[in-house]
Amino acid sequence: MNSQYSQTSRPSPLTRWAVLLFVSMAMFGNYYIFDALSPVVDLLQSDLGFTYKQIGWLWSAYNVAAVCILLVGGYIIDRFGTKKAITFFAAVCLAAAALRAATPHFEVMLAGQILLGLGAEPLIVAATATLAKWFRGKELSFAFGLNLSISRLGSASADWSTSFASPLYTNWQDPLWLATAVAGISVTAAILYWITENRVERGNYQLGEADAPDKLDVKSMFSFSASYWYIVALCVVFYATVFPFRSFAIDYFQQAHGLTREAAGLLSSMLPVAAIVATPLFGLWVDRVGKRSLFMAAGSLVMLPLFLMVTYLPPGPMVTIGLPFIGFDQAPLTLFIVMLMLGGVFSLIPAVMWPSVAYIVSEKRLGSAYALMTFCQQIGWAAVPLVVGFLNDKYLAGPSNIDGYIPSMWFYTCLAALGLVFSFKLWQTERGPGSHGLETITTKSQL
Ligand SMILES: C[C@H](NC(=O)[C@@H](N)CCCCN)C(=O)O
């Protein structure tokens, strides 16, 4: 791969890290906009009379749109290049955020979420392609880890907005306008990346081409190995559990556990906060020791009891949670521990799972492999909020009937159990003759 680059004419490391910063800022905005809906769930209900089912639809609309665009997103990125694609998709996200904030009508908000799905997921794909282009043969995994950390900071900031922007939470609309402003950061960062890459191109530096990263190759998609499909299956159930749980978490902590919005936001932010710190560290660790499928199985095992723990365990004493500059509040110890554990799993599994595909699939099919994996992920992730919204409505979940949340917690647990089965099957396969080296390949073994 390095042969693609002319070593004498490569851009400086400073330029590379500047590109990482700009692309990561674009991702920061992307993740913030998506997560900004969670802290206003109760306001959408009280101010606008939305049901849980409608709110479930708002999230699922994002995924349905993403599924559709993923079929052509790779082509758009390849055809127009990453700098134009990132800027274009960031602008789509900005328009989506504005549309979502503009009117109290459910249909308009739904259109905003659809537009967000059309912009946000291809932006993530384009960002991955950019990192591959700029960091291949260099610090690629580390760059991915840092990129994911900054993205998660976007998610955490949306949760923290319940504290640092608490005056906005007197109505459903102002927090969504704040998200629109953050989308402006994404567009600005994308333009800065465009300018940087233009300068590099004018300076006759060579970047090499990224692989076509996420173009869906229908013909070859069914010929991947069993290990690949176990990873895809784990990816589907893992994200179909964690992302919807996160989407409903702030409201759930408020309604079922009586927390203030600030405390619920802080508690929910434990998930991305843990991931910000731990994701690159887990990546470095796994690179050193291998044992990737074992790590995935261990993560799935830790996740299994967590939703039942928040449901059935006594809340325990109130403890102070929070961060300097963001704020502090009180939350039950049990919830705090569960969120930290979930944060650990949310760091471990993505840090191991996505790079593992690169060991299983040949480089020239990596784009199709990631596209297919993301495509399947979106379908699972689209379906679950609908089911959870349906269960919460059916069992009349709310502050006066907190048992109404139990069915959805069991539903998450069943998904987590499936994740454990798939990761265990992967571990079995990778310890046998069908192994791809997930357990054995380490940075040392590749020297
Ligand atoms: C790396 C992975 N990203 C995804 O799964 C994206 N397809 C969706 C992210 C949506 C967050 N707004 C991750 O974040 O773990």
Describe this structure in words.
- A hairpin with a 3-residue loop joins strand 1 and strand 2.
- The longest helix is centred in the middle third of the chain and has 32 residues, at 226-257.
- The protein has two domains: 8-210, Growth Hormone, Chain: A, CATH 1.20.1250.20; 216-447, Growth Hormone, Chain: A (Up-down Bundle).
- It has helices spanning 13-35, 41-48, 52-80, 82-102, 106-135, 140-164, 173-202, 226-257, 261-289, 292-303, 306-312, 333-360, 366-394, 406-430; strands at 318-323, 327-332.
- Helix 3 (52-80) runs antiparallel to helix 4 and helix 3 packs parallel to helix 5 (106-135).
- The chain is globular, with a radius of gyration of 21 Å.
- The chain is built from 14 helices and two strands.
- Helix content is 73%, strand content 3%.
- By secondary structure, the chain is an all-alpha fold.
- Strands 1-2 form a two-stranded antiparallel ribbon.
- InterPro entries: MFS, MFS_dom, MFS_trans_sf, MFSD1.
- Pfam families: MFS_1.
- Keywords: Lysosome, Membrane, Transmembrane, Transmembrane helix, Transport.
Bound molecules: the ligand C[C@H](NC(=O)[C@@H](N)CCCCN)C(=O)O
Q: What CATH first level of the largest domain would be assigned? A: Mainly Alpha
N-to-C span: 16 Å
Shape: globular
Could you give the topology of this structure?
Elements: H1 13-35, H2 41-48, H3 52-80, H4 82-102, H5 106-135, H6 140-164, H7 173-202, H8 226-257, H9 261-289, H10 292-303, H11 306-312, E1 318-323, E2 327-332, H12 333-360, H13 366-394, H14 406-430
Antiparallel strand pairs: 1-2
Helix pairs in contact: 1-4, 1-5, 1-6, 1-7, 3-4, 3-5, 3-13, 4-5, 4-7, 6-9, 8-9, 8-12, 8-13, 8-14, 9-12, 10-12, 10-14, 11-12, 11-14
The structure holds the ligand C[C@H](NC(=O)[C@@H](N)CCCCN)C(=O)O.
Residues 31, 34, 121, 124, 148, 239, 350, 354, 374, 377 line the site of the ligand C[C@H](NC(=O)[C@@H](N)CCCCN)C(=O)O.
